[in-house]
Amino acid sequence: MKTPKGRSQHAASSAKATADQASSSNNSLHPANPHLAGYDMAALVLSYPALAALLVTTPRGDQSIDFADPIAVKTLNQALLAHHYQLPLWDLPEGYLCPPVPGRLDYLLYLADLLKNSHQGKAPKKSQLKLLDVGCGANLIYSLLAARHFGWQVLASDIDQGALQHGAKLLAQHQLGGRIELRQQASSLDIFDHLLNAGEYIDVTLCNPPFHSSAAEAAAGSLRKRENLGLASDAAELNFSGLSHELWCDGGELKFIQRMMQQSVAVGHQVYWFSSLVSKKEHLAPLQAMLKKLSVTGQQVVEMAQGNKQSRFIAWTFLTPAQQTLWRQHRW
After folding, report:
1. Largest separation between any pair of C-alpha atoms in the chain
2. 11 touches 70 (CB < 8 A)
3. Does residue 126 fall inside a structural domain?
4. Interval 270-285: pLDDT, tens
5. Which domain holds residue 220?
6. pTM of the predicted model, to two decimals?
7. Coiled-coil region(s) at which residues (predicted)?
8. What is the DSSP string of 181-248?
9. Which of the residues 136, 192, 242, 306 could staple to 246 if both were Cys, CB 3.0 to 4.6 A apart?
């Protein structure tokens, strides 16, 4: 359901995030992130030879890529997925968002910590654990990393049939159809409504919601990012790709997450932890206030940092302590 996946941000902003992660010591990533120490370009080239032609030498003499070049950024992601996660055939249709792999993995690593902390410090059995990827997009990045790095089961949803068709191709190519299920959400206004089946249980959900509130706002944001990267204005289409429903929705991020929270009430007994990325820190207060009104039994804000970029997610649950105990006993 591409709707939520929106705020994943454009290829160039993804490039900048990836560049931030490749710079300095990467010490802001999760301690368990395998990309913490940067990239071993020689090893990546061995796994994905196409990267070799795009390597450049930095003033310090290190091998890197031009992070303002969307082709180079995409190829680096392909190399990372091939080398670290046995996903050698990962690709994207033209116009869809290109996600930075290290930052996407960080969200999953912190969700794994959340689950472990909810289970008296023990990781739930990975074969039992099921993730709902709300707005999986054509890149299917969270679902693929959850399956490959963690061994989780995944339900991946999107409103975009084209994205799901490409996702099905990726699953077939990498023989992951038995671990990841794709499901189309029929309505752009629905997130959890009409998605989960009766008796279906999800241990944790994730979402990267649309960031902007309008096409004009998205365009203005793209211009600022191009200027920050020192790119010419005519680089927009190449460096800031992304379909409209990936980039914006009425009301932007805040209204989208509020709608998600409202819809989560109806399936609150079927999910242990709900979660969503929150790009703007000023959105936290109204979101926390809404959760209080919805009578959640627990909520947490988890801060993350990827290079120079600060991010966070908010998580909430409706399960009572007794229900949580039963959940752990029967599922984990």
Report:
1. 59
2. yes
3. yes
4. 999 999 999 999 999 9
5. 2-10+100-331
6. 0.84
7. none
8. EEEE-S-TT-SSTTTSPTT--EEEEEE----BSSHHHHHHHHHHHHHHTT--GGGHHHHS---HHHHB
9. 242
